[in-house]
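Quick log. Single chain, no ligands specified.
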Amino acid sequence: MNFIKKNIKKIITISLLYLILAYVTNITSIPNKIIIFENEKLKLGQMFGITIKEKGDSVVQTSNINNKVEEKTVTLSLFNLIDIKDIQVSVVENQKVIPLGNIIGLKIYSDGVLVIGMTEVAGEKPYEGANIKEGDLIISVDNVNITTTKQLIECVNASEGKEIELKYLRNGDEYTTNIEPIKTANNEYKIGLWVRDGAVGIGTATYYNPSNGKIATLGHGIVDIDTDSLITVESGTITKARIAKLKKGVEGAPGEIKGSLLEDEVIGNININTGFGIYGNVYTTSLLDLNNTEEMDVALIKEIKKGPAKIILALEDGIRKEYDIEIKKIYKNNTEDNKSMLIEITDDELIEKTGGIIQGMSGAPIVQNGKFIGAITHVLINNPRQGYALFGETMIKQMNN
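-> predicted structure:
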C-alpha cells in the first residue's frame, strides 16, 4: 500500500511539474513586442490567473488595448499580484494600400559574401588551416567591410601576397582567421574560395502604400540555396521586369515566369528580407503603372471568408487583370509562417495560361469583398492549381515591425 501511495505521489508531482513547465513556456513564448490594428484585440490566449494591465496600476481588458496610440507597455501579472513580463504593444492605424500584381525584378546584395566552395590555387590550398568553410559569411578583410565579390577580389589583390585577416560569421557568431593569398600565372592573388554576394530573381509586387511610399513583394523571403537561410540584406533594388515566357505548371513540375530584369528602370530599394516578404521604398511611382488602380482597406484576419476571391496579375503587356480563385481553408491561428490560407485557382483563362500557380507569381495580391486580404506564397507541387497564401494583416504588421 505504501509503495502504491509513493508512486501516486510521484505521478502527481511529475504531472504538476509538467503543468508548471508548460505554463511558464507559454508565458515566455509571448513576444516582447506585439503589433495590433486599431480595431483588433490583443490576443495572448487563455491563461488561468494571468491579467493584463497597463504599465502602472490600472488594469485593462485585452479588448481595450486598441486605442489610437503609437505605443503602449502592458504587464502580464499573476493574479494581479506578481508582475511577470512587460510587453510593448504598438497600435497601427488601419491602412489603405493599392494592390499591384506587377511582375518585378529583385536584386539583393548580402551583408558580406557567402562562401559556396573551395578550389586549389596553383596546386595549393591557401584556405587550409584557416577553419573557414562553405556557408560562412565573410564580412571584412583587414578591417575593410566587404559586401560584394568585387570588393573581396580587390582587397585580396591589394595584399600582394601578404597574409590577410578575414572576419566571418557562422551561425550568427563572429570569427577571425588569417589566409596568405597565392599568386597565379595571371599575376593575380587568390585565396581559393568561391563566393557569392547576393541573389537576383523575378517575383510579383503585392501592394504599394501611398501614405508612406513603401512597397511589399513576394510574401516570402529569398533564401540562400546553399545555407537554406534568409539572405541578410545590405542593399538591393526593385526594378521593372520583362516577361519572356510563361512555362505552364503540371503535376510534379512547377511552372515558371521566365524573364529579365530591366535594371535601368529602378522602382525602389529593398530594406529587409523576411520570411513574410520583401519590403522597401518606392522611388519612381510612375514605374508602378498606377493608372486605374484604387486604394483598399486591409482586411483583418477575422474578416476573411472561405469561398470566392480574386488575385491580381499583370501577365500581358503590363496590364493588370483579376482572376478567380477560391479560398479553401483559413488557418486563422497560424502566425508562425506564410501558409495562412489554402487557395485554388478556378479561373479558366489563367489555368490555360499558367496551369495554376507558377514560380514568379509569389506575391500576387488577393482581394475579397473590396478589401486586400493577402498574397500568394507557395504552389503545391502535386497540384499546381492549389497553393498557400499569406494574410495581408501579417504583411502590414511585418512592414511596421
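The CA atoms of residues 307 and 327 lie 5 Å apart.
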